[in-house]
């Protein structure tokens, strides 16, 4: 490999420093918690929930201070163009700008608030064409298409804030969510083609009920059905709420539920009381709220996998630390039927908190981390349950959905290439340790998953992910670097297991990733978008893992050199908003650039050392 020997010292120094930074960011219990970015969207919805609760006389006396501090934070983080993005590093978008504009209408009138609102109105006019309620509502709906998961909450909050005209006008513009179907047994949901995704059932109930109260159906039969379903739907909603009050640990979803129930005249329901308590507990010192409480399980499993990229995890974590992390991770596995999605026991959620829901990204991540931490009888039992959980979740098309099998129609419920690839890696990792019956199921599932990946690979070789994006990418803001890089790891694992086949798509994916490299040596979400630490690390890790030829190794080395410079040799890690939460809500996570750099540099350094050893033996790598 050209330049491998001379490049190894800065790579080693950077990897060592990045690994030390990762260790410093661990909790006292030995796992990782990370820190999600503050969110203008979360802050706006929380402010609105408290303000509307106060108007209804169901708020706490201290909530007025939370509203003032939240508004102050929003004013301080308005973008230069007059709009707001989801994070302090995000481009302005119509969803967040409309929500902040609505929240400002609920605060105390002030000159600075009025000035910020006027600037926001200028931005909205430029993007939507007009502030006329019908025009603005149509623009918001157009952003999400047939998926009502987020367009209805935005319009509901704008209606409650008086931003869509009189109530008679406003509620005609808010699509009605059929909350009455919440009383239907969950097993029928997949066949009903709901207008919202599976995780949004609390919003469907609360906002549908608000609409029913604010603008009752003129159809007497529909009106009667909804009136009769109200009590039971509220009981379903209460059963979905975790003990800490936060639906999915998410301030936006929790705030939307609270304000909608207040609008429905149900402000004294226990659900509202617990929701507002959750929001009070989640506010930050600066007056803002993050998009979710934390991604503790997710970032901890990524950290373990990143360490393993350099060699056995025991080289970096002593026995006590490995035991502690393994025990903590085993403790996060679900033991019963999950009340939110009805998921069977055996999966893992993204967080260790009550609002987490088991899913098809954190479960394989946990399985891979447990494998790396060392295998004992307890781990084998947990892994068998986790492997079975994933097998039961697989869709008929061979791909993996996030939460619920078979929902399929809307974003984040359909199968995803990144989720499918992650499941493949977990299945292959544990295949030697499971019983013959489960091993046969794995083999069938892997075959179906491979066929799925072949179908969804684009003609140019790229794969699109579900849960990560790039705000600079044209069109749908897809992060093809993330998707392609993560699928490549699975394709390589399949080849090594002898299961890939001749037309497995790996070579085309490698070619796409190499072509997407920017002139500076880094990667963005697609070619010619700004290079970031996260995306460059993802690409380097994938190419170094596969490295089929000299050109690929050279591209990986260029990316490694970019990481050395961008991180100041492993000492600074500015995060980019590449994460997508539900419904295209952006976030950045402080641990992502650290964890991904450790993984990428570990794989790259292993590649350079292998190439040097081969060269010394006089063979071509």
CATH topology description of the domain at 38-290 = Glycosyltransferase
Query: Strand arrangement, largest sheet?
Result: 1-2
Mean pLDDT: 91
Roughly what percent helix?
Answer: 55-70%
The class by helix and strand makeup works out as mainly alpha
Order of helix and strand elements from N to C terminus: HEHHHHHHHHHHHHEHHHHHHHHHHEEH
Radius of gyration: 25 Å
| The first-level CATH class name of the domain at 38-290 | Mainly Alpha
Per DSSP E runs of 2 or more residues, the count of β-strands stands at 4
Strand share of the residues? Answer: under 5%
**Poorly predicted residue ranges:** 1-7, 613-621
| CATH architecture field of the domain at 38-290 | Alpha/alpha barrel
Question: Which shape, going by the Cα principal axes?
Answer: globular
Distance between the termini: 8 Å
The tally of helices reads 24
Largest sheet, in brief, is: 2 strands, antiparallel
Structure description:
By secondary structure, this protein is mainly α. It has a domain of 253 residues: Glycosyltransferase. 56% of the residues lie in helices and 2% in strands. The strands form two sheets. Strands 1-2 form a two-stranded antiparallel sheet. The protein is globular, with a radius of gyration of 25 Å. It starts with a helix and ends in a 5-residue tail after the last helix.
């Amino acid at each position: 490999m050209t330049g491998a020997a001379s490049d190894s010292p800065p790579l080693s120094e950077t990897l060592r420093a990045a690994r030390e930074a990762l260790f410093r960011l661990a909790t006292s219990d030995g796992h990782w918690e990370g820190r999600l970015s503050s969110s203008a969207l979360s802050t706006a919805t929380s402010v609105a929930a408290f303000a509307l609760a106060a108007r209804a006389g169901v708020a706490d006396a201290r909530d007025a201070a939370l509203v003032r501090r939240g508004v102050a934070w929003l004013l301080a983080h308005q973008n230069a163009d007059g709009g707001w993005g989801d994070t302090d590093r995000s481009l302005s978008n119509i969803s967040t700008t409309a929500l902040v504009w609505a929240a400002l209408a609920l605060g105390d009138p002030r000159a600075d608030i009025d000035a910020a609102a006027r600037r926001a109105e200028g931005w909205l006019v430029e993007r939507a064409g007009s502030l006329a309620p019908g025009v603005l509502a149509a623009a918001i709906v157009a952003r999400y298409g047939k998926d009502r998961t987020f367009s209805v909450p935005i319009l509901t909050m704008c209606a409650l804030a008086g931003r869509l005209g009189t109530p008679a006008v406003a509620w005609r513009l808010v699509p009605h969510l059929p909350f009455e179907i919440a009383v239907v047994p969950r097993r029928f949901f997949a066949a009903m083609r709901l207008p919202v995704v599976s995780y949004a059932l609390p919003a469907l109930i609360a906002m549908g009920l608000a609409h029913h109260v604010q603008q009752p159906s003129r159809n007497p039969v529909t009106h009667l059905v909804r009136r009769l379903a109200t009590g039971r739907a509220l009981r379903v909603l209460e059963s979905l709420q975790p003990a800490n009050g936060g639906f999915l640990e998410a301030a936006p979803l929790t705030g939307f539920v609270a304000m909608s129930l207040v609008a429905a005249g149900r402000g004294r329901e226990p659900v509202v009381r617990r929701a507002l308590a959750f929001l009070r507990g989640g506010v930050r010192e600066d007056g803002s709220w993050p998009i979710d409480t934390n991604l503790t399980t997710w970032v901890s499993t990524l950290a373990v996998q990143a360490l393993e990229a350099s060699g056995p995890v025991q080289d970096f974590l002593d026995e006590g630390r490995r035991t502690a992390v393994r025990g903590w991770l085993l403790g996060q596995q679900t033991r019963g039927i999950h009340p939110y999605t009805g998921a069977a026991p055996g999966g893992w959620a993204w967080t260790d908190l009550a609002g987490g829901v088991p899913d098809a990204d954190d479960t394989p991540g946990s399985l891979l981390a447990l494998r790396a931490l060392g295998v004992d009888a307890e781990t084998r039992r947990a892994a068998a349950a986790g492997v079975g959980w994933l097998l039961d979740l697989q869709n008929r098309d061979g791909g993996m959905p996030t939460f619920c099998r078979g929902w399929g129609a809307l974003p984040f419920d359909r199968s995803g290439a990144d989720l499918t690839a992650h499941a493949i890696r977990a299945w292959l990792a544990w295949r030697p340790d499971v019983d013959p019956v489960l091993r046969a199921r794995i083999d069938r599932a892997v075959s179906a998953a491979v066929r799925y990946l072949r179908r969804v690979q684009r003609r140019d070789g790229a794969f699109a992910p579900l849960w990560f994006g790039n705000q600079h990418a044209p069109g749908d803001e897809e992060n093809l670097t993330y998707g392609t890089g993560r699928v490549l790891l699975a394709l390589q694992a399949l080849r090594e297991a002898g299961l890939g086949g001749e037309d497995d798509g790996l070579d085309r994916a490698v070619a796409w990733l190499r072509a997407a490299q920017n002139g500076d040596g880094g990667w963005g979400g697609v070619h010619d978008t700004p290079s970031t630490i996260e995306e460059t690390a993802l690409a380097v890790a994938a190419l170094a893992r596969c490295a089929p030829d000299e050109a690929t190794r050279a591209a990986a080395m260029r990316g490694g050199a970019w990481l050395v410079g961008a991180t100041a040799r492993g000492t600074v890690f500015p995060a980019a908003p590449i994460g997508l939460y539900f419904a295209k809500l952006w976030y950045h996570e402080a641990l992502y650039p650290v964890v991904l750099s450790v993984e990428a540099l570990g794989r790259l350094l292993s590649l350079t050392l292998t190439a040097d050893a081969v060269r010394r033996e006089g063979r071509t790598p």
